[in-house]
Write a structure and sequence with these properties.
It is built from four helices and eleven strands; from the N terminus they run E-E-E-E-H-E-H-E-E-E-E-E-H-E-H. The chain is an alpha+beta fold. The strands form three sheets. A five-stranded mixed beta sheet has the order 1-2-3-5-4, covered by helices on one side. The two termini are 24 Å apart.
């Protein structure tokens, strides 16, 4: 179920045999969040995303089958879908955003194009199999699920680093800042920011 209005807000509820997730977002917020997934590091990642993207976010996710992979994947799906719907026709936005963000010894660069063409390049350079009780593949899949359901072109690159926790932190913060720039309304624009005439 998706509820949206003329403002850049959206509410999505996803209920399956695997998960129950409710998300509410406001693209023109202040970075306030209330996040509960039952996975501490996933909560931390999403709170950080909200803070640095300036997107207000309420998200409550519950596993129905006890499988962590399903919860992480579907949380990424819902977060991407909510932002996609809140963007509406994507009129008058900057469209492009990029950011280079350090986290101690790690550095990440992210570029996003909010044209409605799905392409994800995710290179986080994780070395450990598990980071903060989440498998490496589930962390990568979270970013992939988010980007695919946001319906955009997203490139995330960890340039270097030796601490996997820091790599993830720099990647999510760079993603947030790049998206903050891309979703910003351009007061000089009166139409979709594309030569095609539609996003």
């Amino acid at each position: 179920m998706i509820i949206e209005d003329h403002q850049r807000t959206c509410e999505i509820e996803r209920k399956t045999k695997e998960v129950s997730i409710l998300a509410k977002i406001n693209l023109d917020g202040n970075g306030n969040s209330d996040v509960t997934t039952g996975i501490d590091f996933l909560d931390h990642i999403i709170v950080s995303f909200s803070k640095h993207s300036k997107i207000d976010l309420e998200l409550n996710a519950k596993s129905e089958d006890g499988i962590k992979h399903h919860l992480i994947e579907d949380t990424g799906i819902v977060l991407g879908q909510a932002i996609d719907k809140a963007l509406g026709k994507r009129e008058n936005i900057n469209r492009f955003g990029n950011a280079v963000i350090p986290m101690d010894e790690s550095m990440s660069s992210v570029a996003v194009d909010l044209i409605k063409r799905q392409h994800n390049h995710i290179d986080i350079k994780l070395e450990r199999e598990n980071i903060e009780n989440i498998s490496q593949e589930d962390i990568i899949h979270f970013f992939q699920s988010f980007g695919s359901n946001l319906n955009c072109c997203l490139h995330i690159n960890v340039e270097y680093g030796s601490n996997d926790h820091h790599k993830i932190e720099s990647a999510i913060k760079a993603t947030a800042v790049a998206l903050r720039n891309a979703i910003r309304i351009d007061p000089t624009s009166k139409e979709e920011p594309t030569t095609k005439g539609m996003m």
